[in-house]
Amino acid sequence: MFRTISQIAPSRASGLLAAAESAVRAVPPAFPLEATVAVNPFLGQSGEDLATASARLARVAGVSLTRARSDVLGDIEAGKITNGDLRDALAASSSPLRPHDVTALKEAAATPRPVPRALPSVADLAAEASGIDWPAVIERTVGLWAGGHFDRGQALWSPGSGQGAYAAWQSFATRDLTPEIAGLSGFCAHVAAAPDTPERAVLSACEALGVSEAAASTVFHRLLIDLGGWAQHARWLLWQAELDGGSDPTPGDLLAIRLVWEEALLAHVPEVAARWRETLAAHESPVTPDRDAVVDAILQEAGERAHQRRLAAALAPAPRQNVRPVLQAAFCIDVRSEVFRRALEAQAPGIETLGFAGFFGLPLEHTAHGSDEVEAHLPVLLKPALASTSQTDTPGEARKRIGARAARAFGRFRQAAVSSFAFVEAAGPLYGVKLVRDALGLAGNGDACGEPAPRLLDNLDGEAKADLAARVLGAMSLRGGFAPLVLLVGHGANVTNNPHESAYHCGACGGHTGEVSARVLAALLNDAETRKGLVVRGIEVPGDTRFVAALHDTTTDEVTLHDAPRPGEPQASALEAARHWLAGAGSMARAERAVRLHGATPRTLAARAANWAELRPEWGLAGCATFIAGPRVASAGANLGGRAFLHSYDWRADEGFSTLELLLTAPVVVASWISLQYYGSAVAPEVFGGGNKLIHNVVGGIGVVEGNGGRLRPGLPWQAVHDGERLAHEPLRLSVLIEAPEEAIGDVLDRHAAVKALFDNGWMHLFATREGRLHARYRPGGTWSSDGAATLAA
After folding, report:
1. Taking Cα atoms as reference points, which of 427, 374, 435 lies closest to residue 401?
2. Of the chain's two ends, which shows fewer C-beta atoms within 10 Å, N or C?
């Protein structure tokens, strides 16, 4: 079973390690629970089209990346997908394997597709030969070690603390007798004799397993997929390190660990060697889609064209108003805001809403009141450039920080494996009061109104403040026509007993609420020095205009106003009118949203936020399918069903198209990540979904496992995309509509190859609009077609 390490030719070693790097990049990052943000699960496949990526994931994960054919067939039979949609999708495919006409495509849709099966690992083959479930043993033992090693404060002890992942696992595995009890005799000694660096371990295992350079990339990808969310957490560590210009070896460490297992099992069950050689030969073949993958990609395209056709019919530009609005409210582009914005605009003539990413253009790192932790309130694609705080220099603040540390310590004591039973013994009866209160929904949702106003720590002079304010107002296309009262509305979600709480908050704020960003920006825009500097920059804010920060609770549709004018102050009467309109909008929004939630009524909707047993307090961003950037009048007449990201943009005021470039490289990419996370959690929940909420347990403060250990589950819980009977999220790739000249859009894409690849390979659809109407469709390679868009708009 044990052997000396063979010498490997430098060129072969280089090729194998390059394949390992490629496999690591094929895995998406998974952010920890404290700041869960949506991630495109196909980030590593963005250079491939859907059919090819589906073929790749079928090989390494045994999943398909498209809707079930039965669902598509149901839409065809119901007339939701028309012959025209099928014909257009068929025409858009360049594959020689595509069906020759619509009739053949329909016949293919009616034929069940073969269930994809991943190429087996050595562990799979050994399980078949021995009758011992080796993949489960690996999942269990690696999960047990990883939960301690990657712990972020939940556990009271951590194995191998301060060591790299591979070294820590080696130390742990030489003393873990679980594999040997399961039947893998000599495993501890095998691990002890393994190379002392992950690179050597990878190369050594490849020699023992016979992995060629041609096979390595998908062999390695297959093994990383086997590790589930642990590999994705390691990829996040690398992502974070690279944001700071560094690197992190953890993903390679995990690959080495999994390869050590493979070589041990091949030596232990040598009768699988012939089948393993056949598997390696299959891995050596290039990843190419077969006819089933091509058909499924075309059917997926047809469903998306059907959505685009309905969207084009729904868009009804409203007439432009040249009078001063009575109220303006800038909301986050989050799709949940679309419902509330429509409701608010319906309250009275002259109410105008805008859309802008919820961090409001302020890349903040923030220290909250009573906290000693720094939070990143910005999209994960960006680095903080400004610091803010809500802390005060008072004895009470110091006591708050001590209390926060005590609360964290108490939480760790309550949740840690070594003390959870002691906690029940010591605090069970007293804690029972809290459990009863929570069960009856009597705990309350908290009140943020008492929080001190956040402030910038950066000592900005008047010029810097004016530059920052002008940049933000320009990016949201708000350079004139200010109302007396302008609300800056961030959003957050009020939920109880939900490990994925941060996923319901603002993705543009790094999984936090938008309150801090809104309050900081309101203070900046109300500042006299800022206003003076804005005039020089061509933006004159009337003296009677007041900016007020607000927070939209997307679970209850209530809006909290912060730092607002007091009675007797200017704009106080305007604020009272705004409160009345906001309350009316909340009622309308609750009535619309309650229809989608089983058992909910407009009156009971808010109570779901306080119910600690509620699986679906709200639907989050389920249903998201469209991103629209343009003047609000272009979409104000349309009911978009809470499925559209709405970003205000006026290309005529965008000198040099710098705002267009920002739109395409930041909000559009973030929206695609959200859309594709929901898509992946719906079409491939086994790999990219978060599993069943009912049996979730938090591990290490990082993520959740199902039951009492094993594989970390990334992505969205099944209850976030499924209502118990059918999918609540229709898996569609995002349709992006931008009101701007095609030449300007193309110029931006030519400067950003990674963004262009998302459109060229079909991970998003792109349209240029005119006055809200679809005008031209982007074609892979950078061309535009007006025919298809004109047909949709007709």
Report:
1. 374
2. C
pLDDT at 434: 59
Measured CA to CA, the distance from residue 664 to residue 653 in angstroms comes to 17
- pLDDT at position 570: 82
Among 602, 620, 638, where does a domain finish?
A: 620
pLDDT number for residue 436 = 61
Q: Are residues 108 and 219 in the same domain?
A: no
Helix intervals (H) in 227-271 = 229-243, 250-268
User: Are 227 and 140 in the same domain?
Assistant: yes
Q: Which element (helix H / strand E) includes 724? A: none
pLDDT value, residue 609: 84
What pTM did the predictor assign?
A: 0.93
How, if at all, do strands 703-706 and 696-699 pair? antiparallel
- The structural domain count of the chain equals 3
Order of strands, edge to edge, in the sheet holding 485-492? 351-355, 327-331, 485-492, 546-553, 558-562
**Range(s) of the domain holding residue 132:** 13-38+120-284
Distance in angstroms (rounded) separating the CA atoms of residues 709 and 711: 7
Amino acid at 691: G
The reply to whether 712 falls in a domain is no
Predicted confidence at residue 444, as pLDDT, reads 47
Alpha helices (runs of H) in 366-511, residue ranges in sequence order: 395-415, 420-439, 462-475
Confidence at residue 585, expressed as pLDDT on a 0 to 100 scale: 98
Separation between Cα atoms, residue 474 and residue 572, nearest integer Å: 27
Mean pLDDT by 10 residues, the chain (794 residues): 55 94 96 89 96 98 96 97 97 96 97 95 98 97 94 66 89 95 96 96 97 97 97 96 94 98 97 98 97 98 98 84 92 97 96 95 92 88 91 61 50 50 56 59 48 90 96 94 96 90 92 95 96 96 96 96 87 93 97 93 89 90 97 90 96 94 95 97 96 92 89 94 95 98 98 97 97 94 78 52
Residues 351 and 409 in one domain: yes
- Do 414 and 528 sit in the same domain of this protein? yes
Inter-residue contact 552 to 520 (CB < 8 Å): no
Rounded distance, CA 259 to CA 245, Å? 29
Any domain includes 758: no
| CA quadruple 623, 626, 627, 631: dihedral sign | negative
Which two structure tokens, joined as six digits, stand for 147? 């939960």
* DSSP-derived 3-state class of residue 456: strand
In a domain, 774, yes or no: no
User: Distance between CA atoms of 225 and 57, rounded to whole angstroms?
Assistant: 9
Q: What is the pLDDT of residue 498?
A: 87
- Please report which helix (H) or strand (E) contains residue 169, including its range: helix 165-173
Alpha carbons within 13 A on the beta-carbon side of 272: 24
Contacts for 55 with CB less than 8 Å, ≥ 6 apart:
287, 288, 289, 290, 293
What tokens does 112 get? 């069940």
Domain ends where: 620, 645, 660?
620
Q: Residue 651: inside a domain, yes or no?
A: no
Shared domain check, 447 and 364: yes
Say whether both 125 and 257 belong to one domain: yes
Cβ(331)–Cβ(337) under 8 Å? yes
Q: What is the pLDDT of residue 5?
A: 46
Q: Do 295 and 351 fall within a single domain?
A: no
How far apart, in whole angstroms, are the C-alpha atoms of residue 394 and residue 498? Answer: 33
Q: How many CB atoms lie within 10 A of CB 728?
A: 21
Q: What CA–CA distance (Å, rounded) separates 258 from 239?
A: 21
Helix (H, G, I), strand (E, B) or coil at 158: coil
Q: Please state whether 671 falls in left (phi above 0), alpha (psi between -120 and 50) or beta.
A: alpha
293 and 275 in one domain?
no
Q: Using alpha carbons only, how large is the chain's radius of gyration in Å? A: 27
Provide the pLDDT for residue 380. Answer: 85
